[in-house]
Design goal:
Layout lengths: L1 E6 L6 H4 L3 E7 L3 E6 L2 E7 L4 H12 L6 E10 L9 E8 L4 E2 L6 E2 L18 E2 L7 H4 L2 E7 L7 H15 L5 E3 L2 H10 L4 E10 L10 H18 L5
Helix pairs in contact: 2-5
């Protein structure tokens, strides 16, 4: 398979890089080609945030011919139902900052007539994966919803505000947050590339205290799961 592997930083993908065979550098400091089993792997180090991820994915996927795309990274969890180091499949992503402020509260794009059917896969409920997989590695993971933000939460007031906002739109609790997930799903769904967003839970979304984070555990878990996923497809051309 020709696989596009996307990570915001090299740190989030480092244990997996050690398992793959380097072939060539395609774009300086951004896109690298590796081989792994019988797969050809293009590794994109997109940079942190929606802007960088959108630019580099738009540049690459419009010219690439990928069978599968995987977003590998870490995420914060709003829910105590998820454990630090657990790997989840984020299948729904929402942009809680994308809209307008008013005296009556936050107005999403759909409320100010700036979102319609031509903007698919961006909908009033965010971006939802259009792909389902029978793969046992993926079916063993929890499917969760998430938000993509420019500023990760770190105060009680902002956390509560966006919890309430998400619940008012979706009628359920938000589970995770990242800084790139929605951009990844948007680009891949637009280009009809089967895709999954796999995240290792590195921290709980609470008042910022990095001493309580488990980054190494989350990175080790998610990269091991991505390797397991690629192993499961090794017999496919």
């Amino acid at each position: 398979m020709h696989i596009l592997l996307v990570s915001a930083t090299k740190k989030e993908i480092a244990p997996l890089i050690q398992k793959m065979q380097f072939e060539q550098q395609l774009i300086s400091s951004r896109l690298y080609r590796y081989s792994y089993l019988n797969h050809s792997i293009d590794l994109l180090i997109s940079g942190v945030g929606m802007m960088a991820t959108s630019f580099w994915l738009g540049k690459i996927v419009s010219n690439g011919n990928y069978d599968f795309a995987i977003n590998c990274g870490v995420a914060g969890s709003f829910s105590s139902d998820l454990m630090l180091g657990e790997v989840v499949n984020v299948t729904e992503d929402y942009l809680p900052e994308c809209g307008a402020e008013s005296s009556n509260g936050f107005l999403p794009l759909s409320a100010i007539n700036l979102l319609d059917e031509n903007d698919f896969p961006h909908t009033p409920l965010g971006i939802k994966s259009t792909y389902s997989f029978e793969n046992p590695v993926l079916t063993s993971l929890k499917k969760v919803n998430g938000i993509t933000v420019n500023t990760v939460h770190g105060t009680k007031s902002s956390i509560e505000k966006d919890r309430l906002h998400y619940h008012s739109i979706h009628g359920k609790e938000v589970m995770t947050e990242s800084m790139e997930g929605a951009a990844f799903l948007y680009a891949c769904i637009h280009e009809k590339i089967p895709c999954v967003q796999l995240r290792g839970i590195s921290n709980f979304v609470e008042e910022r205290n990095t001493e309580k984070w488990e980054l190494t555990k989350a990175i080790d878990s998610v990269t091991a799961k991505v390797a397991e996923l690629m192993n499961s497809y090794a017999d496919e051309n």
